[in-house]
Design goal:
The chain is α/β, with parallel strands linked by helices. About 45% of the residues lie in helices and about 20% in strands. Helix 1 runs parallel beside helix 12.
Length: about 290
């Protein structure tokens, strides 16, 4: 059919700032019933906490990691937005406590910090990129980060500008853009070859292109239903979004599998709660079902 599931497992990033008992229980249940399906990356949630004006204590974060009923794929050190000194101190303290977190190189910090972290870790994140797209300075700095890494594992936190992900090919990155339909009412359709097309409701009602129609049919989506507002926004049932959000989620899940297969970059989809996990997992299983046809 052309929409085959090319890679496993399913990449999910969860944030300590939003974690809940329900979210953890859902991850445990999926791990128990579908072993080796999930690759869970744990973020400290520093960016979210910063926006919410909340403090994350390092002892609480470390206790949480120790108490998890499953082993995350990796977990990120507790960084501090805009404070590379405290970010480095937190990383060292976590090492001293016996943990092995992925350190965060803070955007705008001294470039010597990159080598400092690689002397202690095989994997380094670049933070401070959320909201940044393709400005020349950001692109140049990402390029320098990748060059210093020189083939070692890199993660771009909150950055999924597909043009530059394909150019720089980091080891991994993460994004919450798969929720854009729920948030903004804009449908994302995966077109193949690492291309995503965003469409608003007016375009869907008017007359989407034949290419868009073909991509939606390939996903099993009824294009006529997308002309009605109730199928564009909102959640219809527990763990399952509107038809448009389902198509968007399916598109992003497919994109992550192809990016990992074709360029080696692991794209993690950010999950804030149990419903997010269920929706991504349901569409992942839908891809498996399509493969079996």
């Amino acid at each position: 059919m052309g929409w085959l599931l090319e890679a496993k497992p399913l990449n999910i990033l969860i944030s300590y700032a939003y974690v809940s008992e329900g979210l953890i229980k859902e991850l445990v249940e999926i791990n128990n019933t579908h072993p080796d399906t999930l690759r869970v990356f744990l973020d400290s949630g520093a960016f979210s906490a910063f926006n919410l004006n909340k403090e994350i204590r390092i002892e609480d974060y470390c206790s949480f990691i120790s108490s998890l009923p499953f082993k995350p794929w990796r977990y990120i050190a507790l960084d501090v937005i805009g404070d590379e000194k405290k970010t480095k101190e937190n990383y060292i303290e976590m090492l001293d406590r016996g943990f092995d977190p992925v350190p965060v190189f803070t955007y705008g910090a001294d470039w010597k910090d990159v080598d400092f972290y690689y002397q202690r870790s095989d994997f380094v994140c670049m933070g401070g990129l959320v909201g940044e797209r393709g400005s020349a300075k950001v692109v140049n700095d990402i390029s320098k980060f990748i060059q210093i890494a020189d083939g070692r594992k890199t993660h771009l936190l909150g950055y999924t500008n597909l043009e530059y992900i394909k150019k720089f090919r980091p080891f991994s990155c993460d994004s919450s853009s798969w929720l854009q339909c729920q948030r903004y009412g804009r449908l994302a359709v995966y077109m193949g070859n690492g291309r995503m097309k965003t469409i608003d409701r007016k375009e869907l009602i008017k007359n989407p292109s034949e290419e868009i129609k073909a991509a939606l049919r390939l996903m099993g989506i009824d294009i006529q239903l997308l002309k009605y507002k109730k199928y564009i926004t909102g959640w219809r049932v527990k763990g399952e979004g509107s038809i448009a959000q389902r198509a968007t989620t399916l598109s992003w899940v497919k994109l992550t599998t192809e990016m990992e297969k074709n360029i080696g970059t692991k794209m993690f989809l950010v999950c804030a709660d149990k419903t997010n996990v269920l929706q991504i997992f349901n569409e992942y299983k839908q891809l498996e079902n399509m493969e079996a046809i």
